[in-house]
Design a protein that fits this description.
Blueprint (H helix, E strand, L loop, with lengths): L2 H29 L2 E4 L1 H7 L1 H38 L5 H54 L4 E4 L4 E3 L7 H11 L2
Parallel strand pairs: 1-2
Antiparallel strand pairs: 2-3
Helix pairs in contact: 2-3, 3-4
Pfam families: OmpH
GO molecular function: unfolded protein binding
Protein name: Outer membrane chaperone Skp (OmpH)
Length: about 180
């Protein structure tokens, strides 16, 4: 690098640094009031969230007890078959094996039903809570005049309408991809 090109580089870097320092106050002013909220924590720690968790736990425990009873019956029948198979007549053995298969199918069906029921119960209890929590957070954003609220775990949960370009994006997308 020649002396002249080093001098130009040094002057250029100096100008960039001065411009950067001058831009800091402008960036600081543009920040506004930006806050974060942990929506998951808020939903699990509020009273309604704790009630929903307790209800889901109660339902799960009840159904798990049913599954445990059926599982115990299956284990008992399986043990009986293994221990007494040499002493059983073939028709009795076939009948017991059929009973075991039938109980195992009942267990699998019960397990699937429990999953579906608990999933539906969770949706029924959590969706209204989520909706109300989001409405509340947005109301707080308006009341406190926040410029931006972000979920600590995922993304933006409130932004003033003036900063929301969703409709513009939809219009541009529709125009481009008729």
């Amino acid at each position: 690098m020649t002396f002249v090109s080093r001098k130009i580089t040094a002057v250029g870097l100096g100008l960039l640094m001065i411009m950067g320092v001058a831009a800091v106050p402008a960036v600081a002013k543009a920040e506004g009031k930006i806050v974060v909220v942990d929506m998951m924590q808020a939903m699990t720690e509020c009273k309604e969230g704790k009630r929903a968790q307790a209800e889901l736990k109660r339902q799960a425990e009840k159904r798990q007890n049913e599954m445990k009873e059926l599982g115990d019956e299956i284990n008992k029948l399986r043990s009986y078959l293994l221990d007494a198979q040499d002493m059983m007549k073939s028709d009795v053995k076939i009948q017991k094996e059929y009973e075991l298969k039938k109980k195992m199918k009942q267990f699998n069906d019960l397990r699937d039903d429990v999953r579906q029921e608990l999933s539906a119960a969770e949706r029924r209890l959590v969706e209204p809570l989520q909706r109300k929590m989001l409405e509340l957070v947005q109301a707080i954003g308006v009341k406190e005049n926040y410029d931006l609220m972000m979920d600590k775990r995922s993304g933006v949960v409130y932004v003033p309408a003036s900063r929301d370009i969703t409709q513009e994006v939809i219009s541009a997308y529709d125009a481009k991809y008729k």
